[in-house]
Amino acid sequence: MEKRRGKSVGIAALILLTAIGAAGCANKEDGGEARTAPSQSSAAASGQASPSGPPASAVQSDGQSSGLRKVKDARGETEIPAEPRRIVDISGATEELLLLGFKPIGTANQDSLKPGETPAYLEEYLADAQIVGNYARGEANLEQIAALKPDLIVSSAMFDQTYEQLSKIAPVYVIEDDPLSFAGWRNRLIQLGGALGEEAKAAEWQKGYDDKAKAVGERIRAAAGEDDFAVVVAFPNNLSVFSGTGLGDMLYSDLGLPRSPGIPAEGWGETISLDGLTKIDADRIFLQYAQGTEEELAGSVVWQNLKAVSGGHVYRLPNEEYYGMSFSPIGKERLLDVIAELVAPVP
Q1: Measured between alpha carbons, how far is 223 from 211 in angstroms, rounded to an integer?
Q2: Which of 11, 228, 255, 296, CA to CA, is 20 to 30 A from 315?
Q3: Which of the 8 DSSP states describes residue 197?
């Protein structure tokens, strides 16, 4: 466990560093037909109704659950409410719970760029939920959680040291997946679906996502032909290319798009210099950028001479709106619409 967590913490540290540098966004063109993603409000308006977002039955109740059921979690066998009504999630699986029809009254999911705030794309679902911690940092306010009077707490290995205290507040279910594995949403969805008696709903949503991702991938390949893709993440004084995490994981695993030569096929990706991008020289680039970094890139001769840039095939995704969406299921599903419209817009 420690070895796996150590590797994941390293990835999380990189992602948090990227997020810290991202604030605000500019929408300047750097030539050709490069496109910038629309605001979330307009993107959401153009998205399909299914499987986007939690089911309409996702409700939050003041009532208490009745009855218990035995389930297996990361710590072994445990008992949880058969029909939980007041869930506090500190595991980072808030989106998975929403998709299963459970609206947490407390969450440790925060906007990566605006600590203390709910991610903008989740506001409509979590307007009444209190932020009780930060799952990625292993932080939870026990007094605040207790005051909410939950009947179930969903936790992770990040909170092993406070398990006993949490269990005195309410039954605790500990997810078996590494809490900092951003690609682990599928496992979390299936695990929680099984524990909460919503296996069918979990499988249905995952199939809906995969079907939509396949369709988007086919739509993009029809427009882009055999072109390869790179995900370039820009933050102050550093550049990265993503492969097995975030938007990179979406493009290469979910959509089946070709990875540009020179991008690692294994792992999260790598930190790279501006000159290093010339060795990749992707046909098409998705640029995730923080405030000020796009202008810095645009002023570079190296950047201007990249194949994707000179050909007008750079697709901009301002970090402030889109960065966090690429790491969790509801955000990923909505981002599919944005990606499709950037590369293969409907006439």
Answers
A1: 19
A2: 11
A3: T
pLDDT tens-digit series, residues 77-109: 999 999 999 999 999 999 999 999 999 999 999
C-alpha distances in angstroms, 207 versus 79, 113, 125, 183, 204?
A: 29, 30, 22, 16, 5
Query: Nearest-CA neighbor of 94 among 49, 69, 143, 130?
Result: 130
Token pair 């808030």 is found at 94
**What span, in angstroms and rounded, lies between the C-alpha atoms of 166 and 178?**
19
Distance separating alpha carbons of residues 336 and 37, to the nearest angstrom: 12
What does the alpha-carbon distance between residue 331 and residue 314 come to, in Å, rounded to a whole number? 21
CATH, domain range 2-50+216-343: 3.40.50.1980
Query: Helix, strand, or coil here: 193?
Result: helix
| Cα-to-chain-centroid distance, residue 78 | 29
pLDDT digits (tens, 9 = 90+) for 169-223: 999 999 987 655 556 889 999 999 999 999 999 999 999 999 999 999 999 999 9
Of the CATH numbers 3.40.50.1980, 3.40.50.720, 3.90.226.10, 3.40.605.10, which one belongs to the domain with range 68-205?
A: 3.40.50.1980
Q: Could you give the C-alpha distances from 241 to 93, 154, 175, 326, in angstroms and in order? A: 26, 33, 30, 14
Is the separation of the CB atoms in 161 and 150 below 8 Å? Answer: no
Pairing assessment for the beta strands 68-73 and 76-81 based on DSSP bridges: antiparallel
> What is the spatial distance between Cα 148 and Cα 132, in angstroms, rounded to a whole number?
10
